[in-house]
Amino acid sequence: MGFENDIKNATSYLTKKQADYDEVVALSRDVIREAGQIITMLHNDRIAGANSLIKSIKGRIRSMKRIDANFKYYTSQAYQEYAEAMLLYGIKTKKAITSMKELDVEPEAYLNGMLDAVGELRRSMLEALMKDMHGEAKLYFSFMKKVYDATRGIRFTDAILPSFRRKQDVARMQIENASSELLRSKRG
User: Fold this and answer.
1) What is the pLDDT of residues 66-80, one digit of tens each?
2) Are 155 and 120 part of one and the same domain?
């Protein structure tokens, strides 16, 4: 009779694990979608809309954290996208880089989200240049450089910090291009 009980317990455990997995996948998908929407709203100066979505995304993050222990592979992208959106939000609204503690994400998500935010900052810089807002463009460029300079010395294998080295290379190229674009705007 013992093994039947083991099978029953195993099935019960796996049923709960399946339900958690299904919820994590749905939450991850929603977080990624909402992070993209927040970034778009920030680029379109729709701060109020971004604020309401931030309340929603933070709730999803809290829910995900309660059940994601067995599913880090499926949640890492969502945490990274969340970090990217919230870092851009902090820079655009508070002119400050939001801390990892404030975001309550793991170091991998924070660091990768930071480097992804460099691309969004470049976009913000270009939008500012198109509006002849050179001071604001320089501010976004300075944040790009701050992020890159602070993360430049970080060197870990992809097994420890996935995609980071590639993101460093991309950020460096974005900064080089942004520097050229700022110089050209001065001459124009």
Assistant:
1) 999 889 889 999 999
2) yes
